[in-house]
Design brief:
The protein contains 7 helices and 4 strands; from the N terminus they run H-H-H-H-H-E-H-E-E-E-H. The protein has 327 residues and is mainly alpha-helical. The chain has 2 domains: 184 residues, no CATH class; 55 residues, no CATH class. The strands form 2 sheets. Strands 1-4 form a two-stranded antiparallel ribbon. The radius of gyration is 29 Å and the shape is elongated.
Length: 327
């Protein structure tokens, strides 16, 4: 392939990546971001009643725009990778047009870079993950990503090997697809598990709430009566908040002022934490699928456009030549 041809693939990849990045940025902002907000709601609920903490380094608005800008940059980078890959593998990729070839490369990239790693380490919202383990988690994820790319390449090579030897139809699908599934299963089984358990942020262990000193006497009396009736241990010992308050030692409801109150965040936030994580994971993978799909579609459209225009021009020229002369 000529250098001019390679440049054409690269420029088309960059343009396709920019369009895909913009589409993904809008998807993140208006779809995925809703689940991030829900997850942060759980985190905020654990701080109710606590003193003012350290201000966030970046505001939510800055995070929104920063995330969208990152999606565009990531899309451009992936578009460049797809353009170079299509140029390098052009002689080995079969297809009726450039879109067919680009779609095959994009599908392989999505499976290797997104789908297989997500089976072992699915994306999680901000409230999941210990900051102290981020280095370990990032290393394991990147290593799995590289291994997945190798598995995808070997699977594609094995599929071609079977095709060259006359395998076709169900036999090729079962043998080639089965070998790929076995290889992916081994990756998932052998790679280390995530070191972080997924537990909803909660104030039970270190209560952030306190019974207000301005609470009316009738409210304090109702709280004490309800705690005795239900035997709920949400009222904690001020000397050791991990232990329940000994209600037998409370003779006057006014003694409850300043007592730590451990309230589960599930009672303070309307969303289910399990649903938030599930929706965030599905939307995150969906956003990346959108990114790869748009890159392949726009790249194929740009690459096939000159050939389609030339074909239409030729058909028009032939039609004009065959037309009878005017009287």
């Amino acid at each position: 392939m000529s250098s001019q041809g390679i440049k054409g693939f690269i420029w088309r990849g960059l343009a396709a990546g920019a369009v895909a990045g913009i589409a993904t940025a809008l998807f993140i902002r208006f779809v995925t971001e809703t689940q991030i907000g829900n997850a942060l709601g759980f985190e905020d609920a654990t701080g109710i009643g606590a003193g003012p903490g350290e201000a966030a380094e970046f505001s939510r608005s800055t995070q929104h725009w920063g995330g969208m800008a990152a999606a565009v940059i990531y899309g451009v980078a992936l578009g460049l990778v797809l353009g170079v890959a299509c140029a390098a593998l052009h002689h080995r990729l079969s297809g009726r047009n450039e879109f067919d070839r680009a779609f095959k490369v994009a599908a392989g990239g999505f499976v290797g870079l997104v789908f297989i790693p997500a089976l072992k380490y699915p994306p999680n919202p901000p409230t999941v993950g210990d900051p102290d383990t981020i280095g370990q988690r990032s290393t394991e994820y990147l290593l799995l990503m590289m291994a997945a790319i190798v598995v995808v390449f070997l699977g594609w090579t094995f599929w071609g090997f079977l095709t060259d030897r006359g395998w076709d139809g169900a036999a090729r699908f079962l043998v080639g697809g089965g070998a790929f599934v076995v290889a992916v299963s081994l990756l998932i089984a052998l790679w280390p598990a995530s070191p972080d358990a997924i537990n909803p942020p909660d104030s039970d262990a270190a209560p952030a709430l306190q019974i207000s000193a301005t609470a009316p006497p009738d409210v304090l009396a109702a709280i004490l009566a309800n705690a005795r009736a239900t035997r709920d241990e949400w009222l904690r010992d001020p000397r050791d908040p991990s232990q329940p308050l000994e209600l037998a030692g409370v003779s006057d409801p006014a003694q409850l002022t300043g007592v730590p109150a451990a309230v589960n965040t599930a009672k303070l936030v309307p969303e289910s934490y399990t649903n938030v994580i599930w929706h965030f994971r599905m939307l995150s993978i969906g956003g990346l699928a959108l990114l790869w799909a748009v890159i392949a579609g726009v790249f194929g459209l740009l690459a096939d456009a000159p050939a389609s225009a030339l074909s239409r021009l030729r058909r028009g020229g032939h039609a004009g030549a065959a037309a009878p002369p005017a009287a």
